[in-house]
Specification:
disordered C terminus, 192 residues, alpha/beta, globular
C-alpha cells in the first residue's frame, strides 16, 4: 500500500479545532475554546510532536477557536513553524480546502491545516485512497474536535494534490486530562 504519484514524499496534517464554547450573543467566528478545548489543544500539539508530524508551514482558519487551538498546540514544540491565518479555511468545503492546500510552496514537505468540520472530514475522505486497519471507517463515522489525520502522498508540488492520491497513515483524537494542566494524549490515538 503506498500513496499514488511520483515525486518527493509529502504529508498533509489535518487538525480540527479543539472543543469550543457557545456563549450567548457571540458570533460563530468569535467563539472561544471551552474548558475541554483548552485541555485538548495542548495534547494535540504533544501528539503531533510525538508522532514526528511537525509541519514546515501551518495554514490556520481565522476563527478564534482555530487560532487558539493552534497557539496552545504549538506551545508544546521547541520552535513553532511559520503560520498563515487563512480566511478561506473558515467554513470551507473540500474544493476550497484543496485550493488553499494547492497554493502551498513546493519546498514545504509537511503542511498542517487547522480548521473546521465538516470540511476537514470530507477532505480526508476525498484525498485518502486507502488506510491500514480500517482507519477510513473511523473517519467516516466521526472526526471529533481535536482530531488529527495525517495523509501521505508523493508529488512534485502541492498543486498536484488530487482526490484519491494519498494514504491515511495516522489518526488520533488527543485528549487532555483535567488533573494535568499540561494536557495528556489520552488513549485515543490510532496508528493507521
Amino acid at each position: 500500500m503506498s500513496a499514488a504519484g511520483a515525486g518527493p514524499p509529502r504529508r498533509l496534517v489535518v487538525l480540527r479545532h479543539a472543543k469550543s464554547a457557545w456563549p450567548q450573543g457571540v458570533p460563530d467566528h468569535e467563539r472561544p475554546l471551552a474548558p475541554r478545548g483548552l485541555r485538548d489543544a495542548p495534547a494535540a500539539g504533544r501528539a503531533l510532536a510525538d508522532a514526528g508530524c511537525l509541519p514546515g508551514l501551518v495554514l490556520c482558519s481565522t476563527a478564534v477557536r482555530a487560532r487558539r487551538t493552534w497557539e496552545l498546540a504549538s506551545a508544546r514544540w521547541d520552535t513553532a513553524p511559520p503560520v498563515r491565518y487563512e480566511p478561506r479555511l473558515y467554513a470551507a468545503d473540500v474544493p476550497e480546502l484543496l485550493a488553499v492546500a494547492r497554493g502551498t510552496p513546493a519546498g514545504v514537505g509537511t503542511l498542517l491545516l487547522v480548521g473546521h468540520n465538516l470540511g476537514l472530514q470530507d477532505l480526508v475522505l476525498d484525498l485518502a485512497a486507502d488506510a491500514p486497519g480500517g482507519a477510513l471507517d473511523g473517519i467516516r463515522a466521526k472526526f471529533p474536535t481535536s482530531a488529527v489525520a495525517v495523509l501521505t502522498w508523493h508529488g512534485p508540488a502541492w498543486s498536484d494534490l488530487r482526490p484519491g492520491a494519498a494514504l491515511l497513515t495516522w489518526t488520533a483524537v488527543p485528549r487532555g486530562r483535567e488533573d494535568d494542566g499540561r494536557g495528556g494524549t489520552g488513549d485515543d490515538s490510532d496508528r493507521a
